[in-house]
Design brief:
By secondary structure, the protein is an all-alpha fold. Helices cover 82% and strands 0% of the residues. Helix 3 packs antiparallel against helix 9.
């Protein structure tokens, strides 16, 4: 566990040494606040439904910016081999990087709390869907991080890793959307409906915290972290 936490701290602190974390937080919070408040006061209703509809799309395109350098940069500069020569197992390195990214995700979600405070100050929305929505964002974001870290193992080029992360997360996100399921062959429709991250997030975002949705996100996280670990092991 010590190795995992040491790597997690290194990733978290390292992101703030470079402009990556600052750029991510500025873009994330500016984009989120602008697009939420530009229509919020026109609705005349104290609700965060628009916020929770917007955030997953934002995370699809911004989370890979956090993960694109986690493995690709270390491969490019040869520091990955140095890391793996220490008494650190591949799965410990992967979990450490994942937890470091999760810390940045929590910071970014915490930065949206003023939005919730404003909504509750101006009205009396139901707390249940709001808390469930944040829980859904946490699981959705964690799954996106796992996908992005795996994408970072596919190349030494950070831009390619970013694009690959966006592409894979986007496909998983929209796989269960109605327009995709309806257009797909009947034999694939049930599989797509069950595989889409968006469908599982929308279910939680409605205030219904179903254990099946949480298990789905846990399975996605485990699957992509496992794939990442296997790729690192094959390099050894």
């Amino acid at each position: 566990m010590r190795a995992i936490w040491a790597i997690a701290k290194k990733e978290f602190r390292g992101a703030f040494i470079t402009p990556v974390a600052y750029a991510y937080l500025v873009v994330f919070l500016a984009f989120t606040n602008w697009f939420f408040f530009r229509t919020y006061f026109l609705r005349g209703e104290a609700t965060m439904r628009g916020f929770f509809s917007l955030l997953p799309w934002t995370l699809v395109f911004l989370l890979p910016a956090l993960t694109m350098r986690m493995v690709s940069e270390e491969r490019k500069f040869g520091t990955l081999e140095v890391l793996l020569t220490w008494p650190v197992r591949e799965r410990e390195a992967v979990l450490g990087k994942f937890l470091g990214g999760l810390g940045l995700l929590l910071v970014s979600l915490a930065g949206t709390i003023p939005i919730a405070v404003t909504v509750f100050a101006l009205g009396s929305p139901d707390r249940g869907p709001v808390l469930a929505g944040y829980l859904g964002l946490l699981f959705f974001g964690a799954a996106g991080l796992a996908v992005g870290i795996y994408a970072s193992t596919l190349t030494e080029n950070q831009i390619v890793a970013y694009l690959a992360g966006v592409a894979m997360t986007f496909v998983l996100f929209v796989a269960g959307e109605d327009f995709v399921v309806v257009a797909a062959p009947a034999s694939l429709a049930p599989l797509l409906a069950a595989a889409g991250m968006g469908a599982h997030f929308w279910s939680i975002g409605r205030g219904v915290v179903d254990s099946r949705d949480l298990l789905y996100f846990a399975a996605v996280i485990f699957f992509f972290l496992y794939l990442t670990t296997r790729r690192l092991q094959r390099r050894g």
